[in-house]
Write a structure and sequence with these properties.
Blueprint (H helix, E strand, L loop, with lengths): L4 H27 L2 H4 L18 H9 L3 H22 L3 H4 L2 E3 L6 E3 H13 L4 E10 L3 E10 L5 H18 L4 E10 L9
Helix pairs in contact: 6-7
């Protein structure tokens, strides 16, 4: 199972650097002089010879109107909230909140405690020697990776019904979320004596 936290960190870093570059380019264009004006498209209105692309008189007339300041503040607030909402949806759930809501009201369970309980339930099944599990929470779903080793003399089909019951129990515990389960069953090796 690979972690995507490193990839999402690189993605966020690249997006932040691109945003900083665009912001710097925009600020440079706002304060640029005739050097930029010579390279503007033909349809762009020509700035005055001693002015900048955004002249002071035009900006002062906009500031003098009653709608300008509230419109700029509202647009900035909406853009900021949209960016924050996007950043929150991109944040992995397991790293920030290691608890998950249970199907009962006002009850939360630490994911590590649930993993320990699942492993213990799997070990109680007849024929299971060892068990390991990992639960990964997503916003609307959960993923259970269950790995068990059977005792010598038991086959995978002997323990699958019990593992299905364990998976159903986890699904009921994390009820608002759907549960995807991946189970891997291996046979424990016989301890063969070494001959010398």
């Amino acid at each position: 199972m690979t972690s995507r936290s490193g990839a999402s960190g690189v993605n966020r870093t690249l997006i932040a650097l691109a945003g900083i570059a665009l912001l710097a380019a925009g600020l440079w264009l706002l304060g640029a002089t005739r050097a930029v004006a010579d390279h503007l498209p033909a349809w762009w209105p020509a700035p005055p010879a001693d002015g900048v692309l955004l002249d002071r008189e035009g900006l002062a007339s906009l500031r003098g109107t009653g709608w300008w300041a509230p419109a700029v503040m509202a647009a900035g607030t909406v853009i900021t909230l949209l960016c924050l909402a996007w950043a929150v949806t991109r944040t992995p759930l397991r790293g920030l909140r290691p608890t998950g809501p249970l199907s009962t009201t006002r009850a939360e369970l630490r994911i590590t405690a649930l993993e320990d309980a699942v492993c213990e339930d799997a070990r109680r099944i007849e024929g299971v020697a060892r068990a390991r599990c990992r639960i990964a929470l997503r916003r609307t779903s959960a993923h259970l990776a269950l790995r068990v080793w059977t005792l010598p003399g038991y086959a995978a089909k002997d323990v699958l019904d019990g593992l299905g019951t364990v998976s159903t129990t986890v699904e009921h515990a994390l009820h608002p979320r759907g549960l995807d389960t991946r189970t891997r069953v291996s046979a424990q090796r016989h301890a063969a004596p070494h001959v010398r």
